[in-house]
Each structure stands twice: as C-alpha cells, then as structure tokens.
Amino acid sequence: MKKCFALLALLIVQTAHVFAQDTDGPNKQTEIQKPSRDFVMLQFTYNGWAGKPDSIKTGGFSRGFNGYVCYDFPLGKKKSNFSFAAGIGISTASIYLDNQQINFTDTGTKGDQVSFSAESKDYNKYKITTAYLTAPFELRYFANKNNRNKGFKAAIGMTVGTLVGAHTKGVYKVDGTKVADKVNTKRYIQPWSFAGTARIGWGNFSIFGTYNFTTLFKEGQGPDVTPYAVGLCVTGL
Length: 237
Fold this sequence. Notes:
Residues 1-20 form the signal peptide. InterPro entries: Beta-barrel_OMP_2. The chain has one helix spanning 2-24, and strands spanning 40-50, 63-74, 82-96, 100-105, 113-118, 125-142, 152-174, 177-184, 192-202, 205-212, 226-236. By secondary structure, the chain is mainly β. The chain folds into 2 domains: 1-32; 37-236. It has an 8-stranded antiparallel β-barrel with strand order 1-2-3-6-7-9-10-11. Strands 4-5 form a two-stranded antiparallel ribbon. The longest helix is centred in the N-terminal third of the chain and has 23 residues, at 2-24. The two termini are 48 Å apart.
C-alpha cells in the first residue's frame, strides 16, 4: 500500500511538472488559450434618417449608443474561423432638429399624426429620442482563432428590437434659467424595429453600420423616414 501511495505521489509530481512547463515555458501550447467570444459589444453611433423630405431639417450631432451581451457559438470544428452569435441589449438614438420642432395631433382617431414645423420657442437644441430592447444576431469571422482580441474580424447580421421608450425634448432659456419641454409618447413610433448590420475591424475595435428595414413612424402617422447608424464598436471578453 505504501508503494502505491509513493507511486501515485510521484505521478502527481511529474504531471504537475509537465503542466507547469507547458503553461509557463517558452513553448506554451496555444490550445489551452481561451479565445475571446466578443461577449460584450459597446457601440457609439452617429444616427440619421434616410429618405427624409426636404421639409425636415436635421442638425447638430445626432448620436446614440448600443450595448449588447452576446453568446458565441463556434461553427463547424472547434477551431473554426466562423461562429454565430445571439444576444440581448439596449439601443438608443437621438436625432437633433435644426430650428424645427415636432407637433403631435392626438384626437383618439386613426388620423393622429406627427408633423414638423418651425420652432415656437427659441430652442437651444431640440431632439427626438427612441430606445429599443434589442436582440442582435451575427455571423462572425475571426482571422485569429486562438485570440480574437487580436487580428482581423468581420461580421454581418441583423437586429430585432421592441420599442421601450420615445420622447421629444426641447431646451431653451427664460431669464437665464434653462427650461426643458419634454413629451413622452410611443403612440406614433413603430413598435418593432428590424435592421441589417455589418462590421469590420481589428482586435477589439471595429467600424460598423446599420440600416433599418422598417420606418421610424407608423404608416400614415408620420413621414416615411428610415433610421440608419454608423459608428465605432468596442468588443471583448
């Protein structure tokens, strides 16, 4: 029995010695590295409306933010360069108007709609903001299979979002005091958002773009403008 314990102890020591050499030595095995799954995506966006009529004047720096948590599923063999990812998060967009404001007609009938007109007050800035609970889906390519925090990467996919909030906000001053007019309403905004996405980059940073398949406003309740966004995406983990 003592000989068995001695043999087992010797075997453990030898195994630990070999493992230490593999993980700490100059010939470290790349197989034991856990590649980044791009678990977190943070996107900083410039936003706009495609197809807007000349009567709508946007200005300033319209911007937004998207934050997603994703799970990555490798495709094919374990060390494949391709994967599919799905996740959940929030996406926001603020469009600034240039010397214009949005008017709401709420009569309780199907004729309710939004319209754009000249400012009724001297607003310093005026914007419309939307927020969606969003699920992103991506087909991903990673040139570096062992460490996705390095090397070329690209992805195409789509997002599906459900509206959680929308408001307009105009800021002006009265006798030097800042005053904000804010109207919260989801009545005129499409309750669902579908958009195509693409991104390309290197390591943890990439540029991306999105283009909606749906218009911003419900049919007949606002102009047929289509949201889009371009920006910087930071990924990791």
